[in-house]
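[Automated response] Your request has been received and processed.

Submitted sequence:
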Amino acid sequence: MTSSSTPGLTRFNTQADAEAAAALHEVCASAAWGRAILAHRPYTTTEALLSTSDTATAALGAEDLAEAMAGHPPIGRPKPGDPTSSREQRGMAGASEELKAEMLELNLAYQERFGHVFLICATGATGEQMRDAVKSRIGNSPERERGIVRTELGKINRIRLTRLVTEDA
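Generated structure:
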């Protein structure tokens, strides 16, 4: 990860608020998180942006966290036509039909238990690792799971923000 300014960071810093807000919504669906990121522009480094993201993610209330999670599709079912969703869930793309069916069942059981999608930073994870994670987390208390979800959301936000400010326009 770069710690200096990039052309993408400069572009983000100078975008109109509405355009930057739209880009941030693609990173994280929480409006409160997006407002917190916008409020601290301009950023001198990518690391400063990521640090602000970490702080904003940690500060999300229950409703804001729910709003953020609502922007994530279930593991194994990336949003059709969404390259970010497909890229992040690549580990499930080559999974066996049995594993995909098991993940669907586990996703439904998790959602029934916690009232939201199973959220994991899936980038670089195999289908088996994601399955094992949902199996291990489904027994958590709601409080413990909320903490894990917040950590996973923070990882996802960092990856997506880094891509936002390092990719070419």
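Summary generated for your ticket: The CA atoms of residues 139 and 145 lie 9 Å apart. The two ends are 18 Å apart (CA to CA).
If you did not submit this request, please reply to this message.
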